[in-house]
Amino acid sequence: LSQGTHSLIKWKEYDLYKTTNDLVLYSMILNEIQPEIIIELGSGNGGSAVWMADIARSIGFETHIFSYDINKPNFNYKDITFVEFDIRKLNSNQDLPCLPSCKGRRKLIIEDAHVNILNVLITINKFIEKEDYLIIEDSSAKQKQIEDFIQVEPEKFMLDQYYLDFFGINMT
Length: 172
Known about the structure:
The chain has helices spanning 20-33, 47-59, 117-125, 143-150, 161-164; strands at 10-11, 14-15, 37-41, 64-69, 80-84, 107-111, 133-136. The chain is of the alpha/beta class. The mean pLDDT is 89. Helix 1 packs across helix 2 (47-59) and helix 3 packs parallel to helix 4. The longest helix has 14 residues, at 20-33. The chain is built from 5 helices and 7 strands, in the order ββαβαβββαβαα. The strands form 2 sheets. It has a 5-stranded parallel sheet, sandwiched between helices. Strands 1-2 form a two-stranded antiparallel sheet.
């Protein structure tokens, strides 16, 4: 319901699959960390990637978005590479295409694929560095996988209470 009572929030005619709270927090996070690379796992119809590319550009920094999905959106957009990839088949012996080239660059990584979550997080962990930012969307349904993942390197990650509690304790 927070995405709209009769339809989804849109950006340039693309469904965003974001709440009003998400849009505020993402714009603040983008402004704060100004990532060189955004990795989005779960493209949907591409609206979220388009919105992030436009917001980054409007803030005045350059970023490139790699957006992965089993069904890649069928259009091109400046600063976005849509990658057709079946995340369900990702395993510990494999990397996401394009991910190795992102090493050493400030990243915002958004897990929103809802499949193979533990393997996805373990793969991302190989490339995430200090100052990178990991967001796990819709995490209430992923608590077990997140707990298992954190056990891999418990000191590597911290919760950002500023954003988590921005609209109330543990609201986002």
